[in-house]
Amino acid sequence: MNHHDQTQETYRQIASSYAAAWQKGGTVESELQAFAALLPEGATVLDVGCGSGLDTAVLQSYHLNVIALDYSHEMMRVGRDEHNCLAPFIQADMRHLPIGQQVDGIWASASLLHLQRDDLLPTLKEFWRVLKPRGLLYVSVKQGEGEAWVAAEKYGHDLRRFFTFWQPQLLDPLLETAAFHILKATEEEGKHDCWLVRFAQKREVEP
Questions:
Q1: 94 in helix, strand or coil?
Q2: Model confidence over 25-83: pLDDT tens digits?
Q3: Right CATH number for 25-137+162-202 from 3.40.50.12780, 3.40.50.1820, 3.40.50.150, 3.40.50.720?
Q4: Which helix (H) or strand (E) holds 199?
Q5: Residue 65 region, left (φ>0) first, then alpha (ψ -120 to 50), else beta?
Q6: What is this structure's pTM?
Q7: What is the 3-state secondary structure (H, E, C) of 35-93?
């Protein structure tokens, strides 16, 4: 089983406990609000790595047309059944999006960090492909060095998830190479980790 499938299996087993934990922990409200403010009302947004759909529901509250996408069917089922999230859910690999150039924004919160390092640039180019001209991208990844398998002990399981950690000098050039212009770059302190947060806009030059 490769790292991608192992992480998917972990999320399948921890789906309910993970969703419950984040329901109590809330969302990144200020960043969701800032993202929505940069888009016109009714814009189409793809929530990549939506999990149980907590961010999806907030984005919908800002009158955006949200499509939720995740690699884990079980995580999305929890979102529909337990959180009553009514957005359309698509099970798909973010590296191969099953849509054309039809979205105004992509929200990728704490999802790209599960990719191996060499997969990030092709995935960013895939994001570029499906975004409309001057489309908006939000990305957050954990700051750090290297890669690691981390046990999901706080969700009641010893199964592992794969993480790639990033530094600005590695992340930002990849965004630029994928033909995104960085609008805002910040480092945000979470409860347990420091996060690199990027708002970026699609440039017209094809990567």
A1: coil
A2: 456 889 999 999 999 989 999 999 988 788 998 999 999 999 999 887 777 777 666 66
A3: 3.40.50.150
A4: strand 194-202
A5: beta
A6: 0.88
A7: HHHCCCCCCEEEEECCCCCHHHHHHHHCCCEEEEEECCHHHHHHHHHHCCCCCCEEECC
